[in-house]
């Protein structure tokens, strides 16, 4: 499933991270910061503009210091998730109560869970078919994507209560440009990426996609390219969001490993910025795509219905939810393959979600079971199953560490 993105003209300046970050030409594995190599927090394009008041600036400076280690032979490795470590909450969110917001697509409601008690403390109606709960770029608001209702419902993270919906056409999913100047709405059924004002959501422009079912995405390490998945045609599209041009269409192999076609879902950049990991629901695994050349490197099997991708708080592992298999695969960024699998006792349908602020739990919606699963990331046990509404989908664990949100259920930098 997908959503589309657009923006209203290029920002005043787009800063290329390569000017400040050096990625080692060799000897570095994805996300592996060992062996004396330095790890540096990535800085997004336009970060100096601070359009939302520079929230979390102090925390960002400290994060950069904390993640830089003396390196041998001048080696430096980028860690785009260096600001997402446990305890690195921006001052903007530090006093928000910890909650889990679950959009129930079939019920048209949002369930609010207290993660300390595992109890649903509130449930309220929103628009038709809510798909994801998305933190805003400035971290101040949560947006419920009411796909069939053609609205976005704001949630105040302080009170946990909804506000007045804003009309937005086909908001399957929602992202924000790294500098915070534009919201990118994934208009899945319209095969369109819409550029909107990130606060008012007034339409600034649209791009028709050369594929069907745009839905999930992530940005390159310098923030200049938005790599999006197209679920229904089995493609990836590399979008230059400043120029508003499609730079490349990546055709995922069909009839691979016994599957009739590809069905790409979530997209996540490796910590060192070199590789995009793309979940493929039809193939039952993940594609590794070169983040510079946008070329498919390999396919790695994880489990039936591979869907959501989440990075551990130490940047060493990628959690892959296998919706059809009722499991989560733990992929090592250093080894580029699964090293563990967590199974749901009695089966289930783990879909979208997020990692707790301290990194100790992974929360996932059980799409076809009307429940939420809480995994202990230390041993992979399911510590709780929590009943919610029908069709729970893209839940958001909030707040989380990070200086700003790039969208979806919480892609923080």
TrEMBL record:
Pfam families: YNCE. Residues 29-71 are annotated as: Disordered. Keywords: Signal. Residues 98-395 form the YNCE-like beta-propeller domain. Coiled coil: none annotated. Residues 1-24 form the signal peptide. The keyword Signal applies. It comes from the Bacteria. PROSITE patterns: PROKAR_LIPOPROTEIN (PS51257). The keyword Signal applies. This is YNCE-like beta-propeller domain-containing protein. It comes from Sphaerisporangium album. The lineage of its organism: Bacteria, Bacillati, Actinomycetota, Actinomycetes, Streptosporangiales.
């Amino acid at each position: 499933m997908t959503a589309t993105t657009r923006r209203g003209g290029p920002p005043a300046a787009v800063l290329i991270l390569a000017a400040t970050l050096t990625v080692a030409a060799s000897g570095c594995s994805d996300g592996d910061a060992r062996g004396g190599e330095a790890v540096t927090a990535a800085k997004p394009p336009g970060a100096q503009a601070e359009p939302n008041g520079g929230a979390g600036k102090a925390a960002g400076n400290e994060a950069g210091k904390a993640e830089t280690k003396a390196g041998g032979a001048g080696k430096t490795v980028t860690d785009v998730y260096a600001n997402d470590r446990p305890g690195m909450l921006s001052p903007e969110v530090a006093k928000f109560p910890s909650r889990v917001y679950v959009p129930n697509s079939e019920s048209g409601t949002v369930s609010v869970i207290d993660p300390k008690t595992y109890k649903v403390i509130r449930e309220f109606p929103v628009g038709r078919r809510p798909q994801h709960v998305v933190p805003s770029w400035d971290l101040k608001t949560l947006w419920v994507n009411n796909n069939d209702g053609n609205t976005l419902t704001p949630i105040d993270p302080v009170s946990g209560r909804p506000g007045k919906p804003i009309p937005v056409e086909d908001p399957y999913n929602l992202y924000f440009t790294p500098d915070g100047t534009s919201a990118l709405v994934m208009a899945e059924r319209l095969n369109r990426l819409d550029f909107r004002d990130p606060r008012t959501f007034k339409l600034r422009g649209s791009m028709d996609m050369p594929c069907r079912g745009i839905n999930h995405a992530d940005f390159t390490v310098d923030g200049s390219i938005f790599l999006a998945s197209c679920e229904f045609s089995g493609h990836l599209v590399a979008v230059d969001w400043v120029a508003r041009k499609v730079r490349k269409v990546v055709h995922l192999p069909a009839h691979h490993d016994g599957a009739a076609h590809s069905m790409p879902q979530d997209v996540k950049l490796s910590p060192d910025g070199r590789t995009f990991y793309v979940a493929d629901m039809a193939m039952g695994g993940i594609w590794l795509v070169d983040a510079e050349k946008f070329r498919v490197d390999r396919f790695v099997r994880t489990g039936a219905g591979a869907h959501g991708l989440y990075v551990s708080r130490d940047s060493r592992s990628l959690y892959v939810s296998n919706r059809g298999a009722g499991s989560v695969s733990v992929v090592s960024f250093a080894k580029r393959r699964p090293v563990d699998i967590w199974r749901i006792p009695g089966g289930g349908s783990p879909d979208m979600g997020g990692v707790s602020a301290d990194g100790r739990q992974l929360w996932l919606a059980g799409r076809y079971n009307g429940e939420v699963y809480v995994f202990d990331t230390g041993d992979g046990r399911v510590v709780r199953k929590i009943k919610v509404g029908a069709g729970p989908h893209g839940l958001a664990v909030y707040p989380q560490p990070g200086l700003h949100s790039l969208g979806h259920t919480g892609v923080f930098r």
